[in-house]
Specification:
alpha/beta; 13 strands; three-stranded mixed sheet
Length: about 625
């Protein structure tokens, strides 16, 4: 028998947030039943003074399948689900920082949003509201909610990168919005700390948020039938006229959602079976994943609040599990009708509605309780659902535990860096660059520094591999203390890796260090800094100065003339001056015994006398 567990309180909405959500619902459903629509993407702006001065941008939904999927396949084989790489000019943060892989999102929704930026007063209206010091609010129902999500992220990118520190973060509220982006999209939003700004209200049975989980290209006609029925212009609100098409699509959606939920559950449960890889080679799974904070309205008295994307994905499947006695047509009709039941939110959120910590409640119901199902706060789940959700919660906790273990290694890293800094200072006291000393490996302290270098490499490689396996929280790469520690490590230790690389002449059989030999630990930590400071990618290569110098010297030894390399030499000199001036390149580079200075003095006199670093070179 199902056992009823009292709900655990989650993060409650503040009174101001409740009023703002109710305001968004009123704007998204002004007629009291069905929201305004448009053949193409459009928006309206409403200014309000309560609960505080704000400008609400309301994006209207579209009921044409052409606005939900790209009109023609893209060139990289992902046309079945209508996704494409995000535009880095609009969304520079939507990528995996370390690997550099860009996020993917709905090509149709991105095109609709781009059309609003280029062909409507959206940008000017947002700028005007910002100038008037109003909080920016984005909202929308159905596909309008998906475009509102993109608008919120675009605004976050802009206000963050332009240094608008006094600008309050935007508030994005959607109702029944389809999924927008993939795992990297979700990861980036969580890494930047934007999830709490984006609230998705979902009716548990609503079919629309799940539509991107199906192969859009092969379901265009079925999706259009669904949208026709949902459209306010539809003559009736019953799927009877589509008695075969809509149930068939509903069944396809159930199968697709089951496949994705099962695959992801196996992944975070730690299943290592090769069957998972075999499955994805035969069945292409939708790339879309939940992103932001999800609030499921399970009753007029209860909101289930989840920020765990894995758990949200599981609920998107398990909420649709069919009762054995329920007909497919009836289930499809209920799921379609749910898309127009968000009006109740206007009253629910103003009342003291309970926000339930669902994952916490499930975790507390598991120990020592064998059962076929459980009821939490009035919501019944199957045993399979309960286990999948508990596993999603446990995986999130495990990532936090892993982060705590990594944090515990921080003192080891700092101690090793302190030792290497002492080594560097000792070399400088002897008028020798620590790079050159390490490359020669003639002294005991050179050997000891190599031991420290290898110890640090092991610690940092472990961190990078955990990131690649998603074993650390999404926010880890944005933590300022680790970005700063990674920068200190990279600037101090990478020159030693470069010295070791060229000491053993690895460039001759493997290739240049920058192209073939640079470890991931340095690439990742460099990109962390560039992302945190919002500076161009590749602009923080100061730790690779010695590799650039070695390559120029090698090219000259191999027969290239100074004229052939003049531009490269000038670029290195200009970069070196900038890095030295900013303090990111040490003064030991310009010691009289430095191998760089010795080489530089072999360059033509005419070039040296006009060089930007001439004043830094000792006579």
């Amino acid at each position: 028998m199902p056992m009823d567990t009292p709900p655990r309180r989650g993060a409650a909405l503040s009174d101001d947030d409740r009023l703002l959500v109710a305001h968004c619902a009123a704007l998204s459903f002004p007629s009291g039943s069905r929201s305004p629509t448009s053949a193409a993407a459009s928006f309206q702006v409403h200014h309000a003074s309560h609960p505080y001065p704000c400008a609400a941008f309301v994006f209207t939904p579209s009921w044409s399948a052409a606005c939900w999927m790209p009109s023609s396949p893209d060139g990289d084989g992902r046309a079945p689900f209508g996704d494409a790489e995000v535009d880095p000019a609009l969304f520079p943060s939507l990528r995996s920082v370390g690997s550099g892989v860009p996020a993917r999102a709905s090509a149709a929704f991105m095109a609709a949003f781009r059309g609003l930026l280029d062909g409507s007063p959206l940008q000017s209206e947002v700028s005007r509201a910002v100038a008037e010091e109003k909080r920016i609010v984005f909202t929308g129902h159905s596909s309008g909610g998906s475009i509102a999500t993109l608008a919120a992220i675009w605004f976050l990118e802009n206000c963050t990168r332009r240094g608008s520190v006094n600008q309050a973060q935007p508030f994005c509220v959607t109702f029944g919005a389809p999924l927008v982006g993939d795992n990297i999209f979700n990861h980036a939003v969580r890494r930047e700390g934007w999830s709490q700004c984006i609230l998705h209200f979902i009716m548990p049975l609503d079919i629309i948020p799940r539509i991107p989980l199906t192969p859009l290209a092969s379901s265009r006609e079925q999706i259009q039938s669904v949208l026709d029925w949902l459209s306010p212009h539809s003559p009736n609100f019953s799927p009877a006229g589509n008695s075969l098409v809509i149930p068939e699509f509903y069944e396809t959606l159930l199968r697709s959602t089951l496949s994705i939920a099962s695959y992801e559950a196996c992944s975070f449960m730690g299943c290592t079976s090769s069957i998972l890889g075999t499955l994805t080679s035969f069945i292409e799974l939708s790339p879309y994943r939940p992103c932001g904070t999800y609030l499921f309205l399970t009753s007029p008295e209860q909101l289930i609040v989840l920020t765990n994307s894995d758990a949200v994905l599981q609920l998107l499947f398990y909420f649709l599990q069919l009762d054995p006695q329920q007909q497919l047509l009836d289930a499809a009709a209920r799921s379609l009708s749910a898309h127009w039941q968000y009006e109740s939110i206007k009253q629910c959120v103003i009342q003291e509605i309970a926000c339930v910590d669902y994952l916490g409640a499930i975790s507390s119901s598991l120990p020592g309780r064998p059962m076929n199902g459980t009821t939490i706060g009035g919501l019944e789940l199957s045993k399979e659902a309960m286990l999948s959700l508990a596993a999603a919660g446990q995986w999130e906790k495990q990532r936090e535990i892993n982060q705590a273990k990594i944090d515990a290694n921080c003192s080891k890293i700092q101690e090793a860096l302190k030792s290497l800094n002492e080594y560097k200072r000792t070399c400088e006291l002897h008028e020798v660059s620590y790079y050159d000393s390490f490359k020669l490996q003639r002294e005991v302290h050179d050997f000891n520094s190599n031991v420290r270098r290898l110890e640090l490499a092991g610690l940092w490689d472990e961190i990078i591999e955990m990131l690649r396996r998603r074993e650390l929280p999404d926010a880890f790469e944005g933590r300022e203390e680790w970005v700063n520690l990674g920068t200190s490590y990279r600037r101090l230790v990478e020159p030693l890796d470069i010295a070791n690389y060229y000491r053993h002449s690895k460039n001759e059989d493997t290739g240049s260090y920058l192209c073939k030999g640079r470890p991931r630990r340095y690439k990742y930590t460099q990109k962390w800094r560039e992302q945190l400071l919002r500076i161009p990618l590749g602009s923080s290569l100061e730790s690779c100065f010695w590799a650039m110098s070695e390559e120029l010297q090698a090219e000259m030894v191999n027969g290239k003339s100074f004229q052939d390399l003049k531009d490269k030499v000038g670029k290195l000199e200009s970069d070196a001056l900038g890095w030295f001036t900013s303090g990111s390149l040490g003064k030991d580079v310009f010691l009289s015994s430095s191998s760089f200075v010795i080489w530089w003095k072999t360059l033509p006199e005419q070039h040296r006398s006009a060089s930007c670093i001439a004043r830094l070179i000792p006579p």
